[in-house]
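User: I'll paste a sequence; please echo it back and then give the predicted structure.

Assistant: Echoing your sequence first, then the prediction.
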Amino acid sequence: MKKTIAFLTVAFMLIFNFSVLPNGLSLNSIGTKALGMGGAFVGLANDGTALYWNPAGLAGQNSSILVFGTDVIPFGSYKYSAAGIDAKTVTNHYISPNLFFNYKMENLALSFGVFVPAGLGAEWNGKDVLPLTGGMGPFNWLSKIGVINFSPGIAYQITPQFSVGAAVNIYYATFDLKRPHNQVLDLNQDGIPETLPQYSENSTGTGYGVTIGLKYTASKKISFGATFRTSTKVTMSGTGELLDLPAQMKSDFDRNVTWPMWIAGGIAYHPAKYFTLTLDAQYSNWKALDKLTAKYKQWATESDFSLNWKDATQIRLGAEYAPCGNYAVRFGYYYDPAPAPDETLNFLFPSSTNHVITGGFSYFMDKVTLEGALEYLIGAERDVKAYPDPLAPENMPGIHKLDVLAFSIGITYNL
């Protein structure tokens, strides 16, 4: 009966995950417990989400099914006084359900996860930013990049102190974009510019990568972890359209999007019986995502969107206090530097330096654990100057601001 329930749970969550693909913004903390501890989880890695944070942490855990959902709610603003713009993002909820399954066989652990690890996006009301198109419009302004990861993993406890683990990352990605076309068209062919058409596209693609993790428990008080995740190139294929024209124009296109290499190290320290402190440093090779190039087949053209992002290192701190056997409370903080330079910053691909505070709890029953967590991302205001350089057409001068509220609810069933 238990095996049947477990199978039905896995099947249901696979279907549910596939029905809600992109989360729209980067999920910085996979898992309700990890989110509550500020994502400082590489050295601890003691629940099913170790598959993502550090696969070596799966070894020695009990068999379990972990299901959680995260809702990410961004609050962005853009002000450009020279053009009379004072706009705010459309308030969207980017909800992602996630599933992790871990099966223990003595020193060996087998795992499988379906989860949303990454994304980016924003939506703006075209009426609020009409000066950007010389009063023409209003246009739809939207970007949404999302990834869902199907990940099998394995871990082995070589000694009671030392474990190794690995996971295969099978990415399925979606990319939606809506904006005004970058050229004014002469619809009457009289040489006089007439209007900007609305541009819209959607695409999907797949890519593959690997995560490798190590975990060393030096004593009952301290453990160390290290994780390496390869970069993953996803080949996107889709259709672009120019709308609002006498004859609607379409073209198929291909675009490569690279998710960055990720290297992380972490420490978990237990200074007292009921208290845990964690510290992580997590490096992302964002420089690999330098340019988004679409190659249009029917139009026989290419379109570049330069990002020129810089590599970034996040510093994360977490704490857990579990004074008795049936509940625990958690707190966390992390510093998240912006990868995007001013010359390519625009409000369709928001990027800010963030200070993030988190909190969470768990309630333990016989075989079931209920968890909740909250994260508030405080984005630093960015005052971007104008770059007349034609090599930086993506630049959007003005004051950019982005805050994000995220909360997560999860349940773990120990088999």
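The helical segments are 2-19, 32-36, 50-53. The longest strand covers residues 198-217.
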